[in-house]
Amino acid sequence: MNGSSKKRILIIDDAALIRTYYRSALEVRGFIVEEALNGLEGLEKVLLQSFDLAIVDVNMPQMDGITFLLELRSKQLPVSGVPVLVISTEAGIQDLAAARRAGANYYLVKPIKQEVLAEYAAAFCGAPQ
């Protein structure tokens, strides 16, 4: 986890509108937000910077969310333990099971209200100060 009092969250989603929606929900509550367009870019960012939470979509180009999780959790680094909240339009039990097997801490189905997203973020990484 991040040593500073500001909690850092990485949003990994290929949809700009979704990233903006999540960012606005989190920044207004004091979280510092970074973005990645796909799992590959997200993996690069978590290997270079410290985050308190990653919010990840499943269906993305170059590297999907499940592959991102598998790669992240396979690393023998402290970053491998960052909590991951998967938020996807995929609502089947098999989708939830695949995300959990890959290492997701929790799975939500889109759409999600901004207040709910902020509550989950606070639950996973603590309220920002």
Architecture overview:
The protein has 129 residues and is of the alpha/beta class. 42% of the residues lie in helices and 18% in strands. The chain has five helices and five strands, in the order E-H-E-H-E-H-E-H-E-H. It has helices at 16-27, 39-48, 65-74, 93-102, 114-125; strands at residues 8-12, 32-36, 53-56, 84-88, 106-109. Strands 2-1-3-4-5 form a five-stranded parallel β-sheet, sandwiched between helices. Helix 1 (16-27) packs across helix 5 (114-125) and helix 2 runs parallel beside helix 3 (65-74). The protein is globular, with a radius of gyration of 13 Å. The model has no long low-confidence stretch (mean pLDDT 93).
Q: How much strand?
A: 15-25%
Percent of residues in helices comes to 40-55%
Element pattern in H and E: EHEHEHEHEH
Uncertain stretches of 5 or more adjacent residues: none
Give a count of the beta strands, DSSP E runs of length 2 or more. 5
Derived structural class? alpha/beta
User: Could you say which overall geometry the principal axes of the C-alpha atoms support?
Assistant: globular
